[in-house]
Amino acid sequence: MKHILRKFVSLKPGKWDTYIWRAVLAMRTGHHKCIGRSPAELVYEQKLHTPTIWNQGNKQAEDNRIKNINLFFKNLKEYRK
Question: Which of 18, 23, 53, 71 could form a disulfide with 4 if both were Cys (CB 3.0 to 4.6 A apart)?
Fold first, then answer.
C-alpha cells in the first residue's frame, strides 16, 4: 500500500491522507497474478463497477448489474419477514 500511495502523493506529499481511498480502490480492483483476478472479484464474484468502466457500454454488464440489484432487493424483502 505504501508503494501505491507514494505514486499518488508524489506531487502533494503533505496531503497523503486524501489519497488513501484511491490507493485502496487500486489495490482492490487491480488484477493480481497469484489469484488470477482482483481481490474484489474474489469477494463479490464480479468486477466492481468503477468510473473507469461506466462508459464502456457493456450491455451484458449492465444487465447483470440490474439483475443483481433486483435480486438484492428481493432477498432483502424476504429477510425482513
Answer: 23
